[in-house]
Amino acid sequence: MTPLTDVNYSDLLVEALTRYPDRTAFVAGDRRVSYAAAADGVGRILRVFAERGLTAGDGIAVLSGNTPEVWLVQAAATLLGLHYSGLHPLGSAEDHAYVCEDAGVDLLVVDPEHAEAGAAIVERSSRIKHTLVLGESELAENLLTLLETAPGTTLTRRAAGPEDVPWIAYTGGTTGRPKGVKLPDRALVHTVSTVIASLDLPSVPRYLTVAPLSHAGVLPILPTLLRGGTVIVHRGFDPEHWLRTVQDERVNWSFCVPTMLYKLLDSGHAAKFDVSSLETLMYGASPMSPSRIAEAHDVLGPVLLQAYGQTECVSWATVLRKDEHVPELLDSCGRAVLGQRVVLLDDEDRAVARGEIGEICVRGRGIMSGYHNRPQETEAALRNDWLHTGDLAVQDDRGFFRIVERKKDMIISGGFNVYSREIEDVIAEDPAVAAVAVIGVPHERWGEAVTAVVVPRPGSTVDGPAITEKVRQRKGKHQAPKSVEVVAELPMTAIGKVDKKKLRESYWDGTARQVH
């Protein structure tokens, strides 16, 4: 008797590409790609890769804006047994070259827009053997042209085990060099299950992707295709373009990071378009203030769903579902997703009582197997078989978690632990404030002084003293900002998070000891 084997990620890819051959899989501008054409494209990419001598265990990296071909290349890489790393278009050539060396990348694929960056990466890398371009460029051969004459092949599953690593995903690198997060087959399979079971996926999804496919934007694609849905691909986010596409393509599902939603809300365009087809708008990747969540709910309707996780926990840890977006829960990141155990632990890895602050720790099939080439950091992050996220939270009696701070962002002022998230939520209620970040800056008396850095809404003026007084009344004197500074924009990481490390640098520069 043939032994039974677990369903692996390649099984899901083949099933998704072959089940609905006549339906539309991808829409990109005026282009519509059927499932049959997508499957044929993956088969041809497999042949091109194999002709260049790529075999299981080799590495591939992709630097490109969002196109259907990016996902087809990812799928082909998995079916061939390559390990894949996405390079964020906003990253530096130096960091990208480091990723290619660290991950062991043999093939670099870029689009014409990033050909110059691709050349800089190749120049810095001693590892890359092959380069292909998704279009015309002097840098290397045009992969799209090669596909026209490449023979097709029938897509078949790959015999991968649950701990095989199809993806090495690199973090943003705000604390130094990017870290390679090894995402095993079991975690990617669990991610698909999580989307279908826990994220209010429409029965036949029409998914609009605007977040980078090199990062979180890619995760909903396979679940969409398994349901026979359609993926509408945007290369970036523009509020009016997003709204028009929702209207014209009858989009029923999308994912945005909070900064995108802020732009949409502040644009004033939402009332011009019919977005009644939208069933679920997932948001995450960084905190969003309750006041702006409520504003989005008023503008877009009861469609919001929050998913909390991190690269190391690719299938997310908690979800605040659409029907849980009620006023008393808008500061919560929800409850544990199905299949993940989520607890709060103290510094000795002991469970804390309900209502007490602890570190969010996760155990389940959806977490990383470790950091690539970093055994000590892996041991620390996966201590006692728990993924330690670095996020501090409290949990109420119903099981809802509320994040209060990143451990490394906690401010110690006058001996008090100050949690910036609580202050940011109060300040964000001000109608003149578009975005805010609260940090600690050096202070001779207090050690660190609470400082609010605020971006005003267009045409608005921020009243610093009024903000300080409001926080003092709501949170207490020790949490009130000693200073409110107005800036045009906040520094952001490549994946849309406020870069507090960079924000603090100007204040801590020249200081011998940076507490955080």
Automatic annotation (TrEMBL):
Transmembrane segments: none annotated. One of its GO terms (molecular function) is ligase activity, forming carbon-sulfur bonds. Coiled coil: none annotated. InterPro entries: AMP-bd_C, AMP-bd_C_sf, AMP-binding_CS, AMP-dep_synth/lig_dom, ANL_N_sf, ATP-dep_AMP-bd_enzyme. This is AMP-binding protein. PROSITE patterns: AMP_BINDING (PS00455). It comes from Amycolatopsis dendrobii. Residues 15-372 form the AMP-dependent synthetase/ligase domain. Residues 422-497 form the AMP-binding enzyme C-terminal domain.
